[in-house]
# Entry
Amino acid sequence: MSVPKTNLRPAVRFLRASHASFTSRDLDKSREFYTEVLGLLVSDEDNDTLYLRGLEERAHHSLTIKRSQDEPACLRVGMRVHDEEELERAKHTFERHGLPCRWVDEPFQGRTLHTVDVVGTPLEIVASMTHQPRRDRQVQMHKGAAARRFDHYQITVPDVHKAAVFYTSLGFRIADYMTMGEHPVGVFLHVKNTPYDLVFLERDGPAFHHYAYIVPDVQSMLRACDTMGELGWGENVEFGPGKHSVGHSYYVYVRDPDGHRVELLLPPIVYMDGDDPPSVFDVRTVKSPQVAWGLPPRASWFVHRSRFLDCEVTPSLGDGDGLTLEQYLVITDRQATGE
# Structure
């Protein structure tokens, strides 16, 4: 099996996954969820849009939520590049791949490029945003999970190999590469010095599975879950707290009032050297790719994803998802009763 090799001299240098934008049917509920549960700060807002950031972030926003009367959706996922010259190179690079590009004006951002990748993910690429003060030291302002910073997002696509080849050609490195035999089913890509910026898993898509914020400790995860319970969203604590068997951190997955999924995770390990090789493994040899201990995820964790606006979804030809919590409970009940 051949794992895609990183192009160490790409035409454009990406810095990190940096932001995402969604729609919501109820901005007041979204505001309550993201400020009280995640502990994000409101950088700006009006009647139709909410801009949020983590406590360590100086960029104006890492999350934008826009009012909509339609089914909630993910609008775009965002990437940062070094400067305006890199932004021009990004446009030329994507156009050479035959991908549509256009300049747009977005509040609080420098010149902004809208495009898509080769598997159809809507992208927003920027080099700059207006700045806000960091609030990590103003502990009297911290709420909920006290989320520090945006970390990564995960997209489901029917062709993981195609996504991996494209992004490694742009300088992204592979931290983890999941296969089923010779067939790739997941790739964890990064450009910053921690494991993940972009994750692609094989399912119908393109569709948005989750985005993640870094939180300081496990107690912060529990505080977020406690807050959700007190505010009436206890059922939206979907998966965890737990620890991934494939990966490098403790986690909890929660869903916001519109169903968009958020992962909270502890500060990840560091990839310090450019010659760190990918971890390659066959998921058939892992008891559960999702958990090192604890119960498997609910079926909703596998099935539910936020749609992208105006994206045609292609069915996956894969062999299906892993063991769900519902299936696990049926199996253990039968074992206990001797059926």
User: Anything to note?
Assistant: The CA atoms of residues 175 and 278 lie 5 Å apart.
